Amino acid sequence: MSIAVGAWALTLGLLAPRGWAAGDDRDGVAPIYHKDRSFRIPFDLDGEKIRLIKELQLWVSEDSGFNWNQVSRATPDQKEFMFRARRDGEYWFAVRTMSAAGQLSPPSDETIRPALKVIVDMRAPSLVLESDGRHGSLAKVRWEAKDENLDLKTLSLEYQVAGARDWKRVPLKRPALVGSESWDAGTVEAVRVRGTVADKAGNVKEAEVELPEGASTPPNLAALDTDAGAPPVRPIGRPRSPIEADSSFTPVEEDVAPKPAPRGAGGWGTEGAKRPIARQARAGSDALVTSAPPAPDWDSASNSNADPGGFATAPAPAPPADFSTPSRPPGFADPFSGAAAPAAAAPAPVDTGGDVPTMLVGGPRFRLKYDVQDAGPDGKPAIVELWITRNGGRNWSRLGPDEDRTSPFDVNLPDGEGTVGLSLVAQSSSGLGDLPPAPGDRPQTWVEIDSTPPRVHLYPPQIGSGQHAGKIAIAWRAEDGHLGEKGVSLFWRPDRPGDPWIPIADAQGQPPAGQFVWAVPPNFPPRFHVRVEAVDEAHNKGFAETPEGSPVIVDRSRPRSKIIGLDTEARAGGPSAHISR
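RE: above sequence
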């Protein structure tokens, strides 16, 4: 595929070969379906222009062009980019070049247009195959196939007589998501039936079912309705994808998810005015473990006068710190907590810079408050239903109705993380009211699902000595895409498994990475454990604590010695002790 890039003509070697699965071509770029998350994107430059280009940049959008991030760069001689998708979904790609003089093409103020679309789909379809009975040699089965990218032309049925080696094809006349088929198996013996279907990315699903022996009655030939014109089954084997990963990957410098620069509406390196919240990249776990803790600042020790209470009788923990979610909308309660939170108790949703707000939730189940004006004679509309989009409004699907048609709406989205657009549709008994969203419509709100807890690393606590005896330095690092500036708190408990964790006074609301020097009160037990908790804005909690067998030991004893005399008891085989006067 050739795309115009400023003054240059850049060719991406991404045209799908004949027969390769691709979606519709509404905007001129047909998506390629791919079942691996790692793949290469080859490119080709005009030989005369290659010396004028210093660098090529690969840009990607995961929300149908609303946001673009630079994810990889390559030199002209490398001939390809390497890309690793974070999850299944649709990815749009575009390429930008930098000349030897440092000029970028297309320029920053030009709207980004995709040159390639790839739908990453690693999940196999669902296929349920059941017996529909036997009548003599007549065999019957029914099936149900499900997949967002299902290729029905690959649906096939085969049967095998018990003990036989070969499979025989069942002439399938009407391929459908839900259907049934009957045929003459030529025997009344038990048979095994195998169903196979694939999606457009080439993920294959098989299902088998055993059909019992049939009664010795002739088959109903009229019911068979053999049709020589049954549509052929498309072979499931696919030609090699032009972006398929293999051992010939060229090493390419990658920014897996760099922090985007400030951007304007739709341009290169510009932030779209209407967009979901962009999630920050989480660093790898190695970055948490290998970084060195800060040197203790012993003079900054907390001089807490808090009474530790009767820790010998396992005190009850104090109430946890209030980690209210800044992006939680009015009336947005914890998932199925029983009642929606009062409007005054929750802050307004985060506005993403346009007319569509974004709400952050900790899972796919939550309660959504809504209001319907001019609801009808009984104060309720006839229908209240929720529609969702996962690709920025390009496609919409009906999630389901609110059975009682009264706020709040108990929402149960499909599993997984990401940003989902929501629109509510209310209609009267006569069909008047809201229209269902059409392709291209903006949602009424975005919901970003973040169910991943923060990752926390606790460095081994450092024990003070000398004039700093009785102090410990606690250092930590916590990382998460939605961790606030004061989302970390510190706790302690005695060295007794099962005892509750107790908040450390003055150590609540700490930064994601830091150190706290704690002056341990004198009446604390000498052995205890320390815990660091991080709570993100979606109320996901991550923690790290000292190992069970390695408690913190604060030794305040001050040994003093004196000589009290000689041991007057004679030891076997040794000289007697005498005191000289």
